[in-house]
Amino acid sequence: MLQNMMNGIVAIVTGIQSELILFALAIALHRFFFTDVSNKKKTPGKAIKKHLGSFNGIQEVEKNAEKPTAPLVDSCQAAYDRGDHRGVLRIWTSLRRSGRVESALLACVVESMQRLNKESHAIASEIREYAVRNASQCDVAFFNHLLHSMVKSLDVNVINGIVDCMQSAGTSPNGSTYEALIQLHFSTRSFSEVSVLAGEMKSKKVTPTSRTRLILLKTAIATGSLSQALRYYKEVAASSAACPGSVVPEYLATQLAELACRERCPHLVLQELEASSIPVTSGALKALLEEAARSRDQELDARVKLLATTCCNETSGTALGQATKPASADTMRRRDPLAAGDIAQTLLAHCAGSDDVALAEQLYQNGGAADSQVLVALVRFHAEAGRFHKACELYDKALKQASSGEPTKPLSLDSRTERCLVIAALQCGREDILMTLLEGSPAEASKYLSLIRGCASKGSLSVATRLFGLLQERGIELSVSLWNTLLDACVECKEFDEAAALLKQMQGTGIVDQVSYNTMIKAYLQQGLHDGPRALMQDMRTAGLAPNHVTYNEIINAVAKYDRDGRRSEVWNLVEDMKSNGIAPNRITCSILLKTLRAKSSSADLERTMALIEAMEEPMDEVLLSSLVEACVRIGKPQVVAQKLEQYRGKKGLSITGAHTFGSLIKAFGYAKDVNGAWRCWTEMRSQHVKPTSITIGCMVEAVASNGDVDGAYELIVGLLSDEDCREQVNAVVFGSILKGYGRTRRLERVIAVFGEMLVAGIEPSAANFNAVIDACARNDEMHRVPALLADMKARGLRPNLITFSTIIKGFCLRGDMNSAIASFEEMRRDKSLQADEIVYNTLIDGCAQIGAAAEGERILSEMLGQGIAPSSYTLVSMVRLLGQAGRTERAFELTETLTQKYRFKANALVKNALMQVSVSNKHLQRAVSIYEQMLREHLQLDPRTCQALIRSLIAAGKQVQAVSLLRSMLGLSGTAPVFSERPTSNALSEEAFINDAMKSLNAGGSEGAALAQALAASIRAQRQGLSRGARSSY
Fold this sequence. Notes:
It is a single chain. This protein has about 1050 residues and is an all-alpha fold. Helix 29 packs parallel to helix 31.
């Protein structure tokens, strides 16, 4: 027993010893792998740094920190340069504890964290920890460099974290610090934050930089602070004068004058203009003259006119500038290009971008003809430009040089060049080139697939069939992919009978799969045959091939397009059939259903689609989210976007990283008039360093400009043009939103200035840009500018389109110049490619109505009908008013009856109100009363002003009883619904004034009229529980 006890004790001791050994080994390994061996000595202050995170008392510790080794810094920078942001963070884990690094490298690390969607508070914490460890190097210059590098990301939380670090370190911000912060908040239109920062600068007596002053000036103008704007303008002007080459943008002077006029303080700006403290611009003079006319201030008017006549440097705005080619292109043209690989490719890429055939020919002459690979590059250049014969000719030369007297062998062609060569050969009928491409490498099936697809894309099914036959002759194993490619070629060339025959052949040989059936289903759907796909689905099941997502999605997509044929209800039957066969609708299914939603779609369709998305097994991705956002915009419910976005990003963890999705969200917020939401999306996109596309920029600019902040949209474009990563994405479409925005607000000078800036930036204007400028001229009665614009337009190779002429005609009609309007109309008709539409003719008829040219209006209407253009209610309203002005009431009624019967449309409320107004104006009161009663029976909306005019005319004609009867009807005193329904206060007061006027007229009409007025007043009191004091006094 004692022996057993001793054996147990020995076993226990042995086990404990083993555990202790393992524990000691674990501690040693942990210290080896996780302890910073470069700092084995425990320095004083480490605990303070860890627990308090303070900058106090650690400067001596930082002096002993070793500087990071150069390889780590170089590796970190290299990882950043190649876009390996995870690698940057891995290296930073070692680098951050080894000593000081430059602020530029830290900025790269922060950007990598942002691109990997790290939380802002985590990024700020990382910066703070680094600053604590390296307090000695974190001076104001260090923090400023970091701030300026972060401003572009618009990540407010990270920037606030940097500012907190500065405060903790006791570092005082300087002018450069405030410049970065103010630029950030100005970019996001957070003007209140800009004002707070400006106040801090003033209280701390920090001198603002020139750029800061300029931003503060723009902020003061945007917020309507005239006194501050004037002060900042003088400071900016003084600062610019001290810096050669620095100028104040002229448009700010115009905006300053416009602000002064809005604030009813034009004299403040005028005295500065007179003292030459502010440059005189045509826009500033125009704003001041308009204010003088509005306020009838003769002194102001005289002073402005005197200033205008004595100022010889006023900008006319007619010289819009000329676009020039980039200097890089000229530099490249002067180079002596070498006929060698990389340089040749670079030069030809430039040639392709500018279609510079001369430079390509120079490359060919300077040695390219002797280099087969250069010839191949030239082949692709000419083929992509549509010069197919030249491409084939060069390929023959390249082939001959590559063979070098040996048996013909193909060149080494990349897929893009090969595809271009196939297209060129097909266009030139060079089947020998096609055969050469095939003979070179018969084992490459992918090449055959590419060639067959290329033939199909050009409609050459016979060549594709020959290629396929060649494969069969050579005994090459034909995979199901090759068969399917030929089947798809038949479908793409719309040879459906051959496709059906080929599918039968494939079924006979047993070489058929789901792709084969899906391709044939697509063929049936292209022909509008919806029964064939169901039969093919049954054939699939018979062959042991179940229909898949592609099958159902193809059919659902085709059926959904036939809404006009009443087949829309079949969509949900297909969805149910899909689910019953165990195939859950996926993201593509939901996207198809979302794209079918329109404003007229039923609420049931919307609810079922949303429910299907909620029940979807696949996670929500950006493509589906983008489709959902666009559907919400189409159906007129953009407010749903914010709710769905929060739902999918919160509960389902959806992360948005695509510029297209951000663009869709911004567009939706713009439609919903939620500019702050659009700015939030833009800020988030920029903080993630997602490069915006031209479409995304266009959505953002349009969202801001269309909601009234055109200046904010302009500043956004200016910022993007100064950003090397985004400059190329700013195009004519983006500028078009700015031009239209300024045009709608009648700010012609800004339209001209922005148009000129677009040309200076090297952006070639489109016809739409010219149309926007012409529209602005029309709105501002500046039609004398139009000939110069048309000449510039034609000089750039742009032809005036229907919108151009329609806008010009509208401008001349607005100013009553019908001769010029008709002349422009005749010029448009001489262009056989343009056909006048209803809008053009309606504009001309409106112009005739302005000057009372009834005969000319009827002639234009007759010509319109002769061209086969059906009139609309708008046309009829214009004609009725025109004839009414000429006193031709009978003709107005006759024309109304003729057009509505011939073109089968019913006269709406606008037409009948116009007829009633014409009858009243021409004293046909009984006819006006008849129309009034007819409109009541048809429940059409009556125009209150026309009704009031009718009542006044009846009273004046002595028909007091009829007038009171109609007035009772209009006020709802006869048991009918009142014509004067609930409307804004101003209209309600106008109604009371009208009743007062009617009461006075009745009281002045003798005893009968007074009795009628008294009875009417009693009825009104009973209905409204008393009238206003003025109304009582009138009777």
